[in-house]
Amino acid sequence: MADGREIIYFDADPVSRTAVDTRDLPRTTTHSQTRFDPLLGEWVVMASHRQTRTFLPPADLCPLCPSTPDRATEIPESDYQVAVFENRFPSLAPVHFELPPTVDGSPLTRQREGFGRCEVVCFTSDHNSSFARLDDRRARLVVDVWAQRTAELSELDGVGQVFCFENHGKDIGVTLTHPHGQIYAYPFVSPRVAKISANVDDYRKAHGENLFGDVLTAERESGIRVVAANEEWTAFVPPFARWPYEVQVYPHRRVADIPELDDAQRDAFASLYLDLLRRFARRFDTPMSYIAAWNQGPTPKSGVPRDDWWLHLQLFSMRRAADKLKFLAGSESGMQVFISDTTPEIVAAELRELG
């Protein structure tokens, strides 16, 4: 790209990609940082430069649409299938720079540069489409993109976890409405994955079994909260769901991350995932906003065990009724204690009936 960022095109069949970024852009110089919270034992990313990022432009100024002779965008080609590029306003960037070991005036707060990588994944060149409207072949291509990018980013020294996700809908807080997702390569293992890993390890020591596997087996056998399933995957509302509408999707055969999925698993996921997204879109009069979050294991270089990790996807929405949202207020934001406004068993039945 004109400012030195990388862009990668993915096509189901070979396509010549020769377009040049004609914009006059300055070289990117991102200097975010991470600070360690000694009370919670968690890293916090400081990225104040993101205050100036693009916010809900009109469709004719969308930076994720293909370029035209009259307007150059983030994607130089006049059309594309799936495109991945480095975020222009990244929370983390693959650069190193010197910082004092602790924050000025706070010797207990460690700090370091915000090393990592943030990528944008455009699912289609059609601005008015969505992931739910993709066909099976395109959805499968996106799965392959997630796998390829996860494998490559996991090889970067200093990356502890790769997080593929999609924020969909204004209620979630998206700043661009074009169908797209993101990939973060964190320089640490996220608090969620670290906590789950510790609980999985404790369960293995106490019971000699895999906690993920036992949760999946219980849900498949009871069927009470299963929304949909095929020969390779089961989607169910967890009995401990935090969000008003939440589905977790597990492969029947354990893998630690997306690159480990075989062809059969990738095909079956694409089909089941499209089914779930379409159910979310039909639950109310207007499609639900949602977050789709891949829970991948720590990278092999992270130093955190991943032998028991079981890849799974969380699909959840803050919509609790046709005209109501779930806000993370005092208990959730202040104490991290979620209070659910719905019942997992009822939600599962509602989503099943939409099949």
Please describe what this structure looks like.
It is globular and about 60 Å long. Helix 1 crosses helix 4. The protein has 6 helices and 16 strands. The strands form 3 sheets. The protein has a 10-stranded antiparallel β-sheet, with helices on both faces. A 4-stranded antiparallel β-sheet has the order 3-2-6-5, with no helix packed on it. It is α+β, with helices and mostly antiparallel strands and 355 residues long.
Biggest pleated-sheet summary: 10 strands, antiparallel
Give the SSE order as H and E letters: EEEEEEEHEEHHEEEHEEEEHH
Strand content: 15-25%
Q: How many DSSP helices?
A: 6
| Strands in their spatial order, largest beta sheet | 1-4-7-9-8-13-14-12-11-10
Q: What percent of the residues sit in helical stretches (DSSP H or I)?
A: 10-25%
Instruction: Name the quaternary structure.
Output: single chain
Low-pLDDT parts are none
Mean pLDDT, as a whole number? 96
Given the helix and strand composition, which structural class is it? Answer: alpha+beta
Gross morphology is globular
Number of strands: 16
Our measurement of the CA-to-CA distance between the termini, rounded to an integer number of angstroms, reads 43 Å
The radius of gyration over CA amounts to 21 Å
